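Long-time lurker, finally posting.

We've been working with Pyrimidine 5'-nucleotidase (Bradyrhizobium agreste) and I want a structural starting point before designing mutants. I don't trust myself to interpret raw outputs, so I'm hoping someone here can both generate the structure tokens and explain anything notable. Sequence follows.
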Amino acid sequence: MSPPRSFAHVDTWVFDLDNTLYPHHVNLWQQVDARIGEFVCNWLNVGPEEARAIQKDYYRRFGTTMRGMMTLHGVRADDYLAYVHKIDHSPLEPNPALGAAIAKLPGRKLILTNGSVDHVDAVLARLGFAGHFDAVFDIIAAEFEPKPAEQTYRKFLSDHAVDPTRAAMFEDLARNLTVPHRLGMTTVLVVPDGTKEVVREDWELEGRDAAHVDHVTDDLAGFLAELSPQ
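Top reply, 14 upvotes:
Generated this for you. Predicted structure of Pyrimidine 5'-nucleotidase:
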């Protein structure tokens, strides 16, 4: 195996949002997950158990439940996004240590998410990161094709003139780092704090030893602080 890629050459820092820029144990995504289940129930007129099975099947097959609902059931993205992101963001608390570490990184900082800009704005406001990022590439910018689709990463790189060989990608799902690594990015998997209880599917916690994962951290603020110029 080749050694993990370094950060000495990096001038663009790319971050996922959910469970990456805030701790997994906040379980904010659990609220979104529940709203998605409700949406599937209501749209398809099925019970909660069947809706849950459909929701997770589409998530695995299409990258997001939304993509499955759009493709197979004619759902409008705007309706779906407005419904599932209507959640309580109050569990999120300001994280000045992470904010300071991000601010000190040399170069551009971008967000690449399967969520919406509205959701990003709400999360960043709660964390105190509103001014730390240069741009957001969301599911609408991706033309509703979610990560880990290769075309989504390529569109992101093109839209924001990112040289992947000079970029680093931070993600909480190992499968979403496969394409970035193949394109030349330095990849970092952000995993849960082992002392906190998290709500995740087993497969979502896999991949720490994958060849396309250069680095693994359960402390993003500390990890970035070590990379930042003092």
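Before you design anything, note these points.
Strands lie at 12-15, 108-112, 135-137, 167-171, 186-190, 215-217.
The mean pLDDT is 91.
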